[in-house]
What does this fold into?
Amino acid sequence: MSSSVNRAQFFALALLAALLLALLGCSSTGRHRVSVPNVVGLSEGVAVTRMSNADLRVVVIRRRSRDGAGLVVRQDPSAGVSVKAGTTVNILVEVR
It folds into this structure.
């Protein structure tokens, strides 16, 4: 697969997850703002824990890869972005 296809799939899934959460009424209206931690390069478990500790929700998207080691290779929103507490962060984890 090409990198542009993978990127398009990731963002399509991220958009779908965000829309689903919005439809379910999982908004974070009125909450304080937090900085999104950098979890790229971390294991899925550590990444989810860091997001949870930062008062953020997580959607994990797994993609098969020959080099997949169970590590986060992409996140959206990016590290350092200021978001409302309870915001959903999508992480892409490559697995074998």
The chain has one domain: 3-95. The helical segments are 3-23, 44-53.
